[in-house]
Write a structure and sequence with these properties.
- This protein is mainly alpha-helical.
- 66% of the residues lie in helices and 0% in strands.
- It is built from 3 helices and no strands.
- It is elongated.
């Protein structure tokens, strides 16, 4: 599964992208299973991943892991 394989990656951006790729499927599964609390958690996780991907994207001349200046 995507979430499990993401744990073996060493690059944080890759971990975020792989986890983001699998999260909508878990969210849909939880909605269909009527596990609404888990679906809300998955939705919040997706929002957090998107924010982290945008905030920590690599820019020319920027140190790795340094957040983008606001």
């Amino acid at each position: 599964t995507l979430h499990t394989s993401a744990l073996w990656l060493s690059d944080e951006q890759q971990i975020r992208w792989v986890t983001l790729a699998g999260s909508p499927f878990w969210c849909a599964y939880n909605v269909l299973s009527r596990a609404y609390g888990s679906a809300i958690g998955d939705f919040l996780s997706i929002c957090s991943l998107v924010i982290a991907i945008v905030r920590y994207r690599k820019r020319p001349g920027q140190n790795v892991g340094e957040p983008k200046a606001l």
